[in-house]
Amino acid sequence: MNIAITGSTKGIGYGMAREFLKRGHDVMISSRRPAAVEQSVADLRVEFPDRKVLGQVCDVADYAQVETLWAQAVEGLGSVDTWINNAGRDGSKVPFFALPKEDYLQTVQTNIIGMLNCNRVVIPGMYAQGGGTIWNMEGFGSNGQVRPGVSVYGATKYALRYFTKSLVAELENTPVKMCYLSPGIVVTDMLVPPPEQRGEGWEQVKKIMNVLADTVDTVTPYLVEGMLNSTRNGDAVRWLTGRKVGWRFFKSRFVKRDIFTPLGL
Ligand SMILES: NC(=O)c1ccc[n+]([C@@H]2O[C@H](COP(=O)([O-])OP(=O)(O)OC[C@H]3O[C@@H](n4cnc5c(N)ncnc54)[C@H](OP(=O)(O)O)[C@@H]3O)[C@@H](O)[C@H]2O)c1
């Protein structure tokens, strides 16, 4: 299969690309930074010399760049069976009244406008090629959960689930499938702030993360297997279910996990 992943030069996107390649699929890598795209493609070509790995710079907030990413993916891979709207941004974790305007605008530009741009470009493209599946990446807030300091990110992911649900209905009985992807809590640059921004609450956050968070290497095989096994419009592949959360907290009374030290964090 041919896979295109937005925001795939690091974190969960890069991890999913590796897992698709391991399973014999070809991928289009992308993100905003040319050097990161070039480096990721070079690294993946070394690791998977028998697979096709393409790269294209794309800021999902820019409609024309999304059109180019789609065109380059189709030209280079022949078609795109699976498109993953993974690119995402989390702003500063401060109360909304203290959040700089530029910060929340960027979060909305990437998580909402970018996600809409990609769906708007890819749905007709997939229809024209005879079908395909789009996965929209959920996040904190998708299920309506609220936490101080995460209002804008949470609002964008809440909206993403609503939008995806609407599109599942719109695309029923068409060859294009619309699905939900949810990685749980994953130790990436998005989750772990640089040392100077960790603040006093970081040790408390770490305690919760040590119960609930996982690494890219743990979560991405599950996500990729789930996507490869999906057959229906509206399918959801979600790593951290309510049941798993309950089990993790129960287990934490007896077994202490340390997810950060092995990663040097
Ligand atoms: N980590 C978690 O615990 C977690 C939990 C739930 C959901 N998620 C979701 O999972 C997705 C991936 O998160 P992650 O933790 O892997 O983040 P990450 O490590 O920060 O990686 C984000 C990727 O997106 C790219 N990106 C950011 N803004 C972009 C834009 N406007 N256009 C194109 N690419 C852009 C980044 O590259 P450039 O900066 O070079 O563009 C990077 O490749 C996000 O949608 C996030 O909301 C993450």
Largest sheet: 7 strands, parallel
Widest sheet: strand ordering: 3-2-1-4-5-6-7
Q: Are there runs of 5+ residues with pLDDT below 50, and where?
A: none
- Residues in helices, as a percent range: 40-55%
Shape: globular
What is the topology?
Layout: E1 2-5, H1 11-22, E2 26-31, H2 34-47, E3 53-57, H3 63-77, E4 82-85, H4 101-129, E5 132-137, H5 151-170, E6 176-182, H6 202-212, H7 216-229, E7 236-238, H8 242-252
Parallel strand pairs: 1-2, 1-4, 2-3, 4-5, 5-6, 6-7
Characterise the protein shown here.
The protein has about 260 residues and is an alpha/beta fold. It is built from eight helices and seven strands; from the N terminus they run βαβαβαβαβαβααβα. It has a single domain (about 1-185, about 215-240), classed as 3-Layer(aba) Sandwich (Rossmann fold), CATH 3.40.50.720. It has a seven-stranded parallel sheet with strand order 3-2-1-4-5-6-7, with helices on both faces. Strand 1, helix 1 and strand 2 (about 25-30) form a beta-alpha-beta unit. The two termini are about 35 Å apart. The mean pLDDT is about 95. NADP nicotinamide-adenine-dinucleotide phosphate binds near residues 58 and 110.
Task: For this entry, give a set of tags.
alpha/beta, Rossmann fold, 7-stranded parallel β-sheet, 8 helices, binds NADP nicotinamide-adenine-dinucleotide phosphate
